[in-house]
Amino acid sequence: MQRITVVGIGADGWDGLAMESRRLVREAEVVMGGKRHLETVPWAWWQVRVEWPSPLAEALPGLLEEYEGKRIVVLASGDPFVAGIASTLVSIVGPDDVEVIPTVSSESLARARMRWSFEETSLVSLVGRDVRRLLPHLAPGRKLVVLSSDGGTPASVAALLVAQGYGETAMTVLNDLGGLAESRTESTAAGWKDRVSAELNVICLACVADASRRSATSSVPGLPDAAFGSGTTVAGRDARAAALARLAPAGGDLLWAVGPGAPSVAIEWLRSEPLASAVVAVVPEEVADVKESAADLGVPELRVVEGTGPEAFDGREAPDAVFVGSRAADAALLDALHDALRPGGRLVVHAVTVEDEAALVRRFGRHGGELVRIGVEEVVAGETATWTPRRTLVQWSVVR
Ligand SMILES: C[S@@+](CC[C@H](N)C(=O)[O-])C[C@H]1O[C@@H](n2cnc3c(N)ncnc32)[C@H](O)[C@@H]1O
Fold first, then answer.
1. What residue ranges do the domains of the chain occupy?
2. Substitution candidate for ligand 1 out of 182, 200, 201, 204 with most atoms within 8 A of CB
3. Is the pLDDT of residue 230 over 70?
4. Partner of 209 at 20 to 30 A CA spacing, among 4, 13, 31, 238?
5. Tens of pLDDT along 106-135?
6. Atom 15 of ligand 1, nearest CA residue
7. What pTM did the predictor assign?
8. Pairing state between β 321-325 and 346-351
């Protein structure tokens, strides 16, 4: 595979392009990119122009093969590594065969317009994504630069913020940054209403939460049980937090989860580590509810598969962590999932029945690890306040 050069272009198009980038584009035999970018480059009879097909991801490997041996320049906006095509190209042809010439990204321009430093700002991309992906990033006082899918994204974001108790968030939409038509619109999320945005826009949010929302939006595990939809939680927030502490999500770790309570554990796993991934196996009747609950909590990327046994995970990459809810006496399931773990992987199993508890005691005897009993009592408000115990739970965890 030949070298591919990716050239970043700003909203000022060809005129704003550096001399070296112009030279690279002029000398290319094939120039690929979106319509908007191709239109900005002066016509050259010796070049083939390839406008991106839709959907692009599936077509890209074939396109690159078709023009193998030619000098290819790919046009992309701003910094091609910011929510751009560069990562996809690297995944197809490898890092050594992709050269990237970035220009200023829309995120940098947005921060410059807002006078926000890199250190105090987080970038969130909603390009082609469910707007609820914004949810795990919301926290009082956070500054977020959000890349939009299109002109409708600001209104969707405003509605989401209002629904989540973030209506007082200061919202600035920056349209056509760096171009002649650049403009901005400012409002609170609650006051956004029917304002119109350009197709190309970035949303800058200075998050302000209602007092009622402050505790509910943390990415630290142990969300209130009421935050989850039906079929999603069984464990209870304290037991769930104890499970997540031992599952220890970090970086790009993969979790497999199965059994009662597994969906809520998988959702909190994803919320606590943006690079992590998770697969949860549930009975067919629960698939839709679990997907909806995951999306409502900002992690629509949760993979939900049908099944109750280890075969539900067939063909998947080996996990870094496994959670099993209330199925401790199922020896075949536990053996298979334990064996599937990568070395250093963590297994956490919850038991509430006597049979499951006995099975965990035996496993602890054989494999070691940590066996704990979690008993939680809460005061239920009534005429007289008394401590009411929740169902006691036994948790076994082990590192492979
Ligand atoms: C696929 S991302 C690419 C981002 C690009 N690589 C960058 O460095 O800015 C496209 C999104 O970036 C934002 N964007 C890119 N150029 C912009 C501009 N000139 N003005 C406003 N937003 C822009 C918009 O949110 C747009 O939907």
1. 4-104, 107-214, 218-399
2. 200
3. no
4. 238
5. 999 999 999 999 999 999 999 999 999 999
6. 106
7. 0.85
8. parallel
